[in-house]
Design brief:
about 55 residues; mainly alpha; 3 helices; globular
Length: about 55
């Protein structure tokens, strides 16, 4: 648990520093995933992008 928490913090900080429209885009991308498996995969992808400071593609 502690490992994932440390990994999420930079992503969380990056997300909070992005504009509201970019935050909505990331949120929408996650919420539109149909299955739980898709949501988990999408969440991992989003965290990776946020850790790199990337905007949604």
């Amino acid at each position: 648990m502690h490992g994932s928490r440390c990994t999420l913090f930079p992503a969380y900080e990056s997300f909070n520093n992005m504009s509201p429209s970019v935050q909505r885009t990331y949120t929408r991308r996650y919420l539109l995933s149909k299955s739980e498996e898709d949501r988990e995969r999408e969440f991992a992808k989003i965290v990776e992008w946020l850790n790199q400071g990337l905007k949604p593609m």
